[in-house]
Amino acid sequence: PSSFMFFLDKMKLSLLFFTTTTLNTQLSNVYSFLTPRTTATTSLKRGLRYDPYESHVSNPTTSTVLHDIPRPNLEKTSRPFNEARDSINFIKSLPRPSTPQRIAVIGGGLAGLSTAKHIVDAGHTPIVLEARSLLGGKVAAWRDADNDITETGLHVFFGAYPNMMNLFKDLNIEERLQWKDHAMIFAKPNSKKREFSTFDFPSFLPAPLNAGFAILSNTDLLTWEEKIKLGIGLIPAYLFGQDYVEEQEGVTVKEWMRARGVPDRVTDEVFIAMSKALNFIDPDTLSMQCVLIALNRFLQETDGSKIAFLDGSPTERLCQPLADYITSKGGIIRTNSPVQRILIHPKNSPNENCVAGLFLARNEVVTADYYVNAMPVDAIKKLTPSEWRSMTYFDKLKGLKGVPVINIHIWFDRKLSTVDNLIFSRSKLLSVYADMSEACKGYDSKDKSMLEMVFAPAKGWIAKSDDELLEATMKELERLFPEEIRADGSLAKVTKFTCVRTPTSVYETLPGCEDMRPTQVSPIPNFFMAGDFSKQRYLASMEGAVLSGQLAAKAVAETILKNESNANYVHPTKLTERDCNENVDFEVTPDRQLYRVRVATDIPKDIQAELDSFALKSASSIVA
Predict the structure, then answer these.
(1) What is the Cα–Cα distance from 498 to 151, expressed in whole angstroms?
(2) What is the largest CA-CA distance in the chain?
């Protein structure tokens, strides 16, 4: 062990030396990258309409046309991208079933749509049941009477999202991703002028050298000692990959940093912002595994940390193409179809605890051969049948809970000095923000800014009024834009404010919660689990949701093939389907609100009688 540790120390020093010397040989070619990025005369010219560092006026008028940055060559730079493509093709190449099966998917967010997409790829027929009037789940977006869009969250797409990138490719909508300059940009609150500190990832260096360059060339956020301590701490993540990352699941970000001698100032300067961006909570509670998964992908993949914005509403520009793909291959998509109870075979019946059907609003009953949950964890916890709750698989779900978050949109009467990229705000209440009039074609405006911001941590703020949220947000923006925004509205004027409150968003990634996450295969033979909270390596993210749907669909397809090859297998008896009763009241979820699960405590007598008959049939067969 002592010799191994000596070897590891030598490896750390060698890698650090190699990175430093390699960078030194490139200095003559990359002088512009080494120039400090927070002076009033320095410009981030790539991806800008106008020079924000030279335009600190209240109403800049200089404007150029939005330009596109080429899509990174992920086929060349990302091994996970190619592995994800192989996984998707594997599902498509599975043997076709003799009889396509009908699979009910509960939830029309990314996890549910991904599940349905891969189910049709495997030759089966999904029916997606979405409770709200639109698709998208946690990426849903609404258009108002002014034709303005309000999103559930500020979503960006990383190069390190291999399954998401392949999904765009499969749907032939890759051009809808607007790639940005490869940089991580941190705001500098309380400066005299609006300032940023930037980590630039040069295109001429592969990972992890581009990340090392980005850290070393930033001259004002971290000291050299802090950079070296942080870099040495991250070396095991690069050398040992996912195994090492998973071993850090039981400690918080702050605990991990302190154990490696990384000063608290590093956490305060960088990782508070990163923690809030990843999971909407602070580093003193967030599991370090969450941060390391992101950092490890950035260290392993040359374009891993490069981001893209979708060119418009996620519901329209991503979810609708998914829905079109699914329905074009025979799948069914239904909105305003909330599931209010999972109906199961009674005790002592041949298929005890198997799903017999789904009870929807207006007394409708929908049945399928297999069922996949794609609702968030807090929703499925409410909908879990009481007979299942004592099973370890479902009992562990109690430890998972969604974190509250608020997404805010503010339209201003003028242009602000922002950039065409995502900004880590480093403010007390705001996680990240972007000027969507710069970053997204769907929000393009030549003379007015629209800031979209993630308000986090949001605990204690969810119940506050719009006026209180706007007031608090404007105070934070004054710290970020001291020459352009005043909390009292005396400078840039707010012309419109909207927000989406999500009391239970992605699951809170706390130390110890990994063991609580369910696999896609449940102990119920005809019931499966998708959702970003289910087991997959990308945790609570859009990529995690998409991957979970792929894994759930694969599990269903393989189970179908296995059962089909078993001559003795008999499908669980299904309930008789029942059409909805138009005379029964149905409460539609208002726009910009999370669907709240309403569990039906009582079901119509005829449905209960049919369920009871399953047990009676079993008893009569025993007597016979």
Answers:
(1) 9
(2) 91
Q: Are 248 and 288 in contact (CB under 8 A)?
A: yes
Task: Specify whether the CB–CB gap between 447 and 399 falls below 8 A.
Answer: no
Model confidence, pTM = 0.89
**pLDDT score recorded for residue 15:** 45
Strand partners, 308: 157, 179
pLDDT of residue 618: 54
Q: Look at strands 370-373 and 527-529 and give their pairing.
A: parallel
**Are 339 and 546 a contacting pair, CB within 8 Å?**
no
Average pLDDT, the chain: 88
Q: Strand locations in 282-389, DSSP E?
A: 307-310, 332-334, 339-344, 355-360, 364-366, 370-373
Burial of residue 335 (CB within 10 Å: 0-12, 13-18, 19+) is middle
More confident residue, 329 or 38: 329
CA-CA-CA-CA torsion sign (480, 483, 484, 490):
positive
Over range 273-298, report the average pLDDT: 92
452 forms bridges with which residues in the sheet?
409, 434
On the question of pLDDT at 585 being above 50, the answer is yes
pLDDT digits (tens, 9 = 90+) for 432-459: 999 999 999 999 999 999 999 999 999 9
462-500 pLDDT, tens digit each: 999 999 999 999 999 999 999 999 999 999 999 999 999
How is 596-620 classified by DSSP, letter by letter? PP---S---HHHHHHHHHHHHHHHH
Answer left, alpha or beta for residue 450, where phi above 0 means left and psi between -120 and 50 means alpha.
beta
Which pLDDT score, from 0 to 100, does residue 435 have? 97
Look at residue 588 in the predicted model and tell me its pLDDT.
87
How many residues does this entry show for the chain? 624
pLDDT value of position 419: 92
Other C-beta atoms closer than 10 Å to the C-beta of 369 total 20
**Which amino acid, residue 454?**
V
pLDDT at 68: 67
Strands 332-334 and 125-129: parallel
Which helix H or strand E contains 564, and what residues bound it?
helix 542-564
pLDDT at residue 302 is higher than 50: yes
DSSP category for residue 271? I
CA 291 – CA 303 distance, rounded (Å): 17
Q: Which of 108, 92, 110 lies closest to 557, judged by CA?
A: 92
Please, are residues 120 and 98 in contact by the beta-carbon 8 Å criterion? no
pLDDT over 90 percentage in the chain: 78
DSSP string, 3-47: HHHHHHHHHHHHHHHHHHHHHHHTGGG-HHHHS-S-STT----TT
Q: For residues 288 and 281, is the Cβ–Cβ distance under 8 A?
A: no
Look at the block and give the residue holding tokens 């060339």: 217
22-61 burial: b if 16+ Cβ within 10 Å, else e: ebeebeeebeebbeebbeeebbbeebbbbbbbebbeeebe
Q: DSSP letter string over 405-460?
A: EEEEEEEESS--S--SS-EE--SSSEEEEEEHHHH-GGG--SS--EEEEEE-S-TT
Q: Regarding beta strands 102-106 and 125-129, do their DSSP bridges make them parallel or antiparallel, or are they unpaired?
A: parallel
